[in-house]
Amino acid sequence: MTDAQERLIKKLGANAYPISVNLPENAPCSVSLDGGSCTFADRKEERPHKRNSVGFAVRKVQYACPGSSNRQPQTLVSKGFTLSPGRLNLEVTLPQDVYFHGQPIEATLSVNNVSKKTVKNMKAEVVQHVEVTMTNTHFSRVVASLESREGCPITPGCNLTKTFSLNPVASVNKRRFGIALDGQVKDQDANLASSTLVAEGKNVNDALGIIVSYSVRVKLNCGAIAGDLTADLPFKLVHPDPASVKAPLRKTQSADIEVEEFTNLRRGQSIAED
Q1: Which residues share a beta bridge with 125?
Q2: Strand order of the sheet with strand 159-166?
Q3: Which of 98, 60, 104 is nearest to 273 (CA)?
Q4: What CATH number should be reported for the domain whose range is 63-242?
Q5: d(CA 70, CA 105)
Q6: Which residues are registered as beta bridge partners of 113?
Q7: Lowest mean pLDDT among 1-10, 23-32, 166-175, 264-273
Q8: Which long-range CB contacts under 8 A does 131-135 form with residues at least 24 apart?
Q9: Domains of the chain: which residue ranges?
Q10: Measured between alpha carbons, how far is 218 from 105 in angstroms, rounded to an integer?
Q11: Which GO terms fall under biological process for this protein (predicted)?
Q12: CA–CA gap between residue 155 and residue 86 (Å, rounded)
């Protein structure tokens, strides 16, 4: 038993019984697990009174340690045009592979236009990809976007390097249909659902439940006829390791029981996985 359970039993008496919940190691992470219930009865047919039952929500949350990945993602795409010589080249890079909730995501794009077409404007987006394995459903939602004409038009023979700063947060996406969240919509501290992490040597496609991933998508608009050049660059959006960050605590005392209320990092006190 924990110290809190021992104090509660001492306060509530012998009719109080401690319980614990253990999730299997391979249990899927959830956007939100349904509330569970625990009842006690002498016979299995007996219907317990509401005051003799308890319901509580259970979450499993993964987190990553700061500096767990030093990889700098990058991608290079190019596009040729029918009956037009040359190609339009786009390179997108990120300074890191793992981001924590609330961190701005700075994507640097380099455009090399050796075609005969002109780039009219640029757009950068953070896209949330969700796969529901139970129903084999896939969908994507834009959770942050920024469009710019600075440096445009990019005429033939010109180059441009530009950095977009995007900040995907749940507060501006809670009311949108199909957005995956960590927690309930009504929770003030709910975040966008974290990226699904798997143990080393395992494939993320073998995970169960709801699989979440993120990517930065950059589009170069070359007009209605020439179309767009699009680059997608995956990254991970996760919670930081609670052990590496001091959580702000608010303490309240009732008789001989002290309760600590975790704010920003209370989700990280669930099951931890690397």
Answers
A1: 145, 217
A2: 74-81, 84-93, 105-113, 159-166
A3: 60
A4: 2.60.40.640
A5: 15
A6: 88
A7: 264-273
A8: 131/210, 131/211, 131/212, 132/210, 133/28, 133/207, 133/208, 133/209, 133/210, 133/211, 134/209
A9: 63-242
A10: 13
A11: G protein-coupled receptor internalization; signal transduction
A12: 13
DSSP string, 111-141: EEE-SS--B-EEEEEEEEEEEETTTTEEEEE
> pLDDT class for 263, splitting at 50, 70, 90?
very low
CA end-to-end span of the chain, whole Å? 26
What pLDDT is attached to residue 240?
A: 83
For residue 103, what is the DSSP state? -
Token output for 47: 């219907």
SS3 174: coil
**pLDDT(268) > 50:** no
Q: How far apart are CA 158 and CA 164, in angstroms?
A: 19
Q: Is the dihedral of CA 47, 49, 50, 52 positive or negative?
A: negative
Closest CA to 273 of 63, 17, 99: 63
Taking only the tens place, the pLDDT of each residue in 114-169 is 999 999 999 999 999 998 888 888 989 999 999 999 999 999 999 999 999 999 98
Which of 267, 217, 252, 262 is CA-nearest to residue 101?
Answer: 267
For residue 45, give the 3-state DSSP assignment. Answer: coil
Residue 42's Cβ-side half-sphere holds a number of Cα atoms within 13 Å equal to 0
If you average pLDDT over each of 30-34, 45-49, 253-257, which comes out highest? Answer: 45-49
- Indicate the DSSP class of residue 168: -
